[in-house]
Amino acid sequence: MEKTICWANTDDFEQSEIVILGIPDESQSHALRKGASEAPHFIREISHLRDSFTRKGKKSLGLPFNGIKQKKILDYGDISKDQINEVYSKIVSKAKIPIMMGGDHSITRDVIKAIATETGPLSLVYFDAHPDFVSSTQNYYGSVFYDVLPHIDPKTSLQIGIRTPEQEELDNLKKYEIEVITPFDIVEKGVKEISNHISQKIGKNVYISFDMDCVDPAFAPGVSVPVPMGLKNVEAVYLLKNIVEQGIVGMDIMEVCPSYDIKDRTSHLASRIISEVISSSI
């Protein structure tokens, strides 16, 4: 039987407040590196190997510094892409927070559409090395941001970590007036000032999409499309925690590629990100 994420503490969907699920699909990825569909399994496994301990027969967890606030956490297991509408409707209609482990980034398009159907337009915070704003080709991992435009509020949405756009994407960012925060902006202004700005920018119904390649490959080598000069792992998590503390309707963690990882560092970072998000949720 597939292990659940180690912080899961209930099997009761109705009782749960946070629902973790995996979508092990990379069918719309064009990446040379394959294996993103293996990520949900590896993230769960690493959560137990690195963040779960047994002492005198009793299980203990390596928690975030401020714990997990007694949240009821359910690991729903893995679903397929064609189950997204049904499962997300079930989760969001009950005011639970879904945290999804991908898979390639194209999955986010269907998830955002499903959530927005329940909540209205989303304020999208998009962590990525790439804008994913190609419009000449659609419905794949490089067109996600363009594909979700009907379901988001562009004025309260933004991209963080971008450092390798195509010209077409630069044109679309300008055309749709999407704010971008680069790693250089964080270096220049400092992570606290950037975090305060994000807090003022975002609106209601905040959804976070977190491509692990937004983090520098020094900290997250096992991703589908690594790009140098990214965010430090602590910078990324600091920004995440402050966004989550204001309230979110959902989140995803995408493009972990375990077959290219080094000693499971990227899967472990993804696992720790999940725990920190749980610890910061209201």
Question: How would you characterize the overall build of this protein?
Answer:
The protein is of the alpha/beta class and 282 residues long. The protein has one domain: 3-Layer(aba) Sandwich (Arginase, Chain A). Helix content is 34%, strand content 16%. The chain has an 8-stranded parallel β-sheet, with helices on both faces. It has a two-stranded antiparallel sheet with strand order 2-3. β7, α5 and β8 form a beta-alpha-beta unit. The longest helix has 16 residues.
- Bin the helical content: 25-40%
Through-space gap between termini: 31 Å
CATH fold assignment = Arginase, Chain A
Overall number of structural domains: 1
**Per DSSP, what share of the residues sits in E-state strands of 2 or more residues?**
15-25%
Sheet of most strands: 8 strands, parallel
Q: How many individual β-strands? A: 10
> Average pLDDT value?
95
Instruction: Please tell me what the overall shape is.
Output: globular
Second rung of CATH, namely the architecture: 3-Layer(aba) Sandwich
SSE map:
Blueprint: E1 18-22, H1 39-51, E2 52-55, E3 58-61, E4 73-78, H2 84-93, E5 97-101, H3 107-119, E6 123-127, H4 144-147, E7 158-160, H5 167-175, E8 179-181, H6 183-189, H7 191-201, E9 206-211, H8 233-244, E10 250-254, H9 265-280
Parallel strand pairs: 1-4, 1-5, 5-10, 6-7, 6-9, 7-8, 9-10
Antiparallel strand pairs: 2-3
